[in-house]
Structure prediction request, 300 residues.
Amino acid sequence: MKISILTPTYNRANLLERLYRSILQNLNYGIEVEWLIMDDGSTDNTKKLINKFILENQIEIQYYFQKNSGKMTAINNLVDKAKGELIVECDSDDYFISDAFKVIKEAYEKNNIKKEYYAMCFLKYDQNKNNMGNLFKHKKTTMFDLYFKEGEIGEKALVFFSNVRKKYKHEIVNNERFVTEARMYHKMDIDYKILCFNKPIMICEYQQNGYSKNINKEFKENPYGYYKYFEEILEKDFKGVKLKKRIYAIKHYILFSYLTKQYHSKSIKNIENKILYYMLFLPGIIKSKERYNNQKKSYF
Prediction:
């Protein structure tokens, strides 16, 4: 079994050694590893550091450099180069727990992995070893059901089956630089499922300059991709989706309608959602307009 670890990075040389050492800690579980790194135009000593790792000759490392184009383009380019049966996307501010590869290997070998799955889904912890979100309620599910029907709120770690993962790309709209990964996951959900395990494999430390800490900025700079994401969500079957999540989807659809100046309701298939849309449209537009220029406040 071979795992391809994909890491997009931009000026994160201070974090990459931690991730590298966490990979080395996992080499005694009989899994072949390749680490593919896409440097998204870094101006720090990232290249020099990666060359040092390569010279250590502990694992197979492939280093690539692209003109600064954003995380999603970096991931798209790396997926094409991956040769492992399994693909793990690991950001530079994430790193693996000491027995992560053992957990992955056991999950893969002890379960009847069928063609219906696109990924195994594991827990992700913060640096205080707290689960980022809830435990899984069901072993077989989809990412849409997990977050919109089962009440999940935190990040999870996905280990993709590469033969399926390579069929999909992050769709970049209007030359934007970022789109939520969930847009691609929901398209994978149409034909496949995920298999869930209540065991952690990864630890995350959010950075002050990262996407999660600057979500308002990402909203304003990448509105078309988010607009398409929420438009596609509202085309789905909402049976079993609680009111809170319906309101979340509709409020954000209104927000990105405002930011992109695209006002459509035809994509909303569910009658209850359409009623909520008309109820929330005017206050949503007013609120979006009020907060558009206030970076310190959340949109919702």
Q: What stands out?
A: Residues 2-209 form a domain with the Spore Coat Polysaccharide Biosynthesis Protein SpsA; Chain A fold (CATH 3.90.550.10). The chain has two domains: 2-209, 222-291.
